Amino acid sequence: MRNRRYAATGLVVAALLAASGCGNGQASSQDGTVQPAGDTSPAGQGYTGGYGDGTEQAGQGTDRSGPAGTLALREDTKLGELVTDSKGWVLYRFDEDSAEPPTSNCEGPCATAWPPVPADDAAATAGIDSEELGSVKRPDGSNQLTLGGWPVYRYAKDAKPGDTTGHGVNGTWFALAADGKKAGQESAADEGSDAEDSTVPAGGGSSDDADNAGDAELAVADNSELGEILVDAQGRTLYRFDKDSAWPMKTGCLGDCLDTWKPAKPVDKELIEGVDPKLITTFERPDGTEQIAIDCWLLYWFTGDTEPGDVNGHGKGGVWHAVTKDGKKAKAAN
């Protein structure tokens, strides 16, 4: 009787956990979006084994919502010349926005982490062409400052004027240069040569004979070393991180970690091949951007992979692993 009672209790617990989505405390919407559970700071301390510095802390007692005033140019030792507001706060742009025409796609929690800069009272300084300044109307009716057509933001986690902790976050946020381009990349021939688009060319060759994902945004590729693993639309291997948590869903990759490991973007479930769509969810990161997860494990691509089929990230630090179609860690073939 006792064993039966324990077995029944176990079934009830399992059922409750299954019903809760990706762990207790998750607020999961009908579209599969999963909110971080409670305070994400314990898992959000980053990983110091060369992949994260744990320094992301929001500034205290600072206002990020006011007008920019007269813009200024500041020389940064790593990024070169970048744009700040009149109080010295570094200004940013977002790759998922558009400059032609100016469009902001950062709303809700994203706009809390990245406060839009009002267009009121903005003026150019020496080195910034006043004709590059403009404005775009946001969905709430307010006018946001633009520079070179790009909507302008501050970062809530910059602790003091001059901080550039927002630069490179998720591979989509960058400090602004004087002409609206990304700071530190003025010498790039064009925007298409930056960051994510240049890391792995879609449809490129592969020494491992990995399958090209084709039109699929998420697919399974046959790797000679690891067997069947997940790849994105560009054929890049997708990874999971032992310092993340699936129950409840939390991210352990913040700060410098994101310079090396880029959160994979959500996908259209109609464009998935070889994977059960029921395993796919979308996670909202602390900065308000979204990331795809499989079986509640967050997915990343590795900047050290240069061609489709590369698995250079597998086993990195003993905590990064290529992923199977059911969300498990890939294992080398015997």
UniProtKB/TrEMBL annotation:
Where are the compositionally biased (Acidic residues) regions? 188-197
- Asked if the record carries the keyword Signal, the reply is yes
The record's Gene Ontology biological-process terms are: alkane catabolic process
Q: From which residue to which does the signal peptide run?
A: 1-29
Stretches the record annotates as Disordered = 24-70, 182-213
Q: Which Pfam families match?
A: Lipoprotein_15
Q: Which UniProt keywords apply?
A: Signal
Supply the name of the protein. Lipoprotein
Q: Which organism is it from?
A: Streptomyces carminius
